[in-house]
Amino acid sequence: MSKKTVLKNVPVEKNKCYTMTIDDLGSEGEGIGKIEGFAIFVEGALPQEEIEVLIVKVKKNFAYGKLKRILKPSSQRVSHLCDVASKCGGCQLQHLSYKGQLEYKTKKVEMALKKIAQLHSVEVLPALGMEDCWRYRNKVQFPVANHNGNLKIGFYGKRSHNVIDTKKCFLQNKISDKIVEIIREFLEQYHISVYDEKIHKGLVRHILIKIGFSIKQIMVCLVINGKELPHKEILIQHLQCIEGMTSIVLNINREKTNVILGNQNRVIWGKGYIVDNIGELEFEISPLSFFQVNPVQTKKLYQKALEFAQLNGDEIVLDLYCGIGTMSLFFAQKAKCVVGCEIVEEAVADAKRNAKRNHIQNVDFVQGAAEDVIPMLYEKDLKADVIILDPPRKGCDEKVLNTILKINPQKIVYVSCDPATMARDIKILVQQNYCVKLVQPVDMFPHSIHVETVVLMSRVEK
User: Fold this and answer.
1) Which residues contact 218 (CB under 8 A, 6 or more apart)?
2) Whether 200 and 219 share a structural domain
3) Dihedral over alpha carbons 256, 190, 218, 322 (to 10 degrees)
4) Contact at 8 Å (CB) between 315 and 335?
5) For residues 153 and 164, what is the distance between their CA atoms, to the nearest angstrom?
6) Which residue of 129, 215, 429, 460 has the lowest C-beta tally within 10 Å?
7) Cα dist. 437→109, 115, 319, 412 in Å?
8) Are residues 301 and 431 both part of a single domain?
9) What does residue 357 show for φ and ψ, rounded to 5 degrees?
10) How far apart are CA 128 and CA 358, in angstroms?
């Protein structure tokens, strides 16, 4: 069947404008409406809005449109705080009121559980939001580029690697703006080359900034395609004047890759790490350490996970994908013992240091991929009353889920950053021996489409 025949009954044509009403938001935050029953996806449009749309791509069952004009705005529409919000790929929902964002994220979790996990009667609690949903991030990674002789430091544009120059980001700590200004002036004044990923030449690739919100320590890490940064003493002199500056590091990444950080760090001033708190616990954070980017919501997330587990002090807890041990140490305060598993060797070393730093002895950490470690632990007759799952965005490996079913813990606490893969994994567990008891979305990333979720699953007693 030819393409022309397939599209014969489609009611819209490419490069033509139409008037339509938006009914809903999609998984990427795009508006969704219909023209004569035919679905149209429109970035930047909101439900209940009447709009004029330019059709830019037509498929067999749907089309993509570009928002040309809002004829009747939504009551939930707000003005962008940021000048580059419509170009930058980070804030997909900045035009939606914060109340609307929380409702969208709650619904996103609900729909994933219904459509993917086939759970139609599970209650999803309203997403936990923030009192102040700006300047909440403790980490930022800025790509650096040169465009027609002009230095650009900012974020990648939507669906591209074009750097959108950003003088001020309203999601980052204010001090990040000052640090970037200093580095920008340094690079321009001393004519330091910046990386071109197309030809794999140029020196400075990324700027990584980490800030301890509680203890106010700051780390600046320059990712370079080389071994040395010319005139680094001048940059150090300017950066060390910033209150709280604790660590200045060069990260060496000479690979032809989109991965931001290389494996080699060189401390050129101060310490190789900063320290921050989650609740009463202290954690060392290095350039390569994964640490949740929203400290206010992280505390809520971990407290909710601990609340769901309802530990009485006699439980053995297995924490898969444990990172630098943040949740393991949280749970160790209430459990008999905790075993954490993590694939990144440096993170395991950090986790052990963090346990020692907080004088917590009832925790052990094992290095390796969860899909390899958990079967090994099972063969060694590991017993676990509670298993914590906090996988990457792709979710759990099937081997992990199968071994969890063999271990048969009383409770599973699943912490997810992706509702779709979470729902896929939950479906497998529910089909065997578990039921979903509680679901709590937590808004870790205001103004983006992303949502974190805590789910409590209990073993069904037969």
Assistant:
1) 175, 179, 209, 210, 211, 212, 242, 244, 245, 246, 247, 274
2) yes
3) 0
4) yes
5) 7
6) 460
7) 15, 18, 20, 10
8) yes
9) -60, -35
10) 28
Residue 437 lies in a domain: yes
User: Distance (Å, rounded) from C-alpha 371 to C-alpha 211?
Assistant: 33
- Looking at 224, 251, 278, the residue that finishes a domain is 278
Q: In what order do the strands lie in the sheet with 411-416?
A: 363-367, 337-342, 316-320, 386-389, 411-416, 452-459, 434-442
How many C-beta atoms lie closer than 10 Å to residue 15's C-beta?
8
> How far lies 141's CA from each of 54, 189, 225, 412, in Å?
34, 22, 16, 33
The whole-number pLDDT of residue 227 equals 93
| Domain coverage including residue 42 | 3-72
Same domain, 268 and 307: no
CB-based contact 69:82 (threshold 8 Å): no
Instruction: Give the CATH number of the domain where residue 201 resides.
Output: 2.40.50.1070
Report how far residue 29's alpha carbon sits from residue 45's, in angstroms, rounded to the nearest whole number. Answer: 9
Cβ atoms of 331 and 388 closer than 8 Å: yes
- Same structural domain, 361 and 255: no
Catalytic residue status for 169: no
pLDDT in tens, 231-266: 999 999 999 999 999 999 999 999 999 999 999 999
Q: CA 111 to CA 129: how far, in whole Å?
A: 19
The one-letter amino acid code at 53 reads: V
Residue 289 lies in a domain: no
* Residue located via tokens 């996988």: 391
User: Do both 391 and 360 map to the same domain?
Assistant: yes
pLDDT digits (tens, 9 = 90+) for 339-393: 999 998 889 999 999 999 999 999 999 999 999 988 888 888 888 999 999 999 9
Residue 84 lies in a domain: no
Q: Report the alpha-carbon distance of residue 423 to residue 116 in Å, rounded.
A: 6
pLDDT at residue 462 in the model: 66
Query: Which of 253, 278, 303 is the C-terminal boundary of a domain?
Result: 278
Whether residue 317 sits in one domain with residue 433: yes
DSSP string of 132-177, one letter each residue: S-SS-BSEEEEEEEEETTEEEEEEEBTTS--EEE-S--TTB-HHHH
Q: In what order do the strands lie in the sheet with 163-165?
A: 163-165, 150-156, 139-147, 204-211, 218-224, 245-252, 264-270
The answer to the question of residue 7 being in a domain is yes
How many structural domains does the chain have?
3
- For the segment 37-85, what is each residue's pLDDT rounded down to a tens digit? 999 999 999 999 999 999 999 999 999 999 999 999 999 999 989 988 8
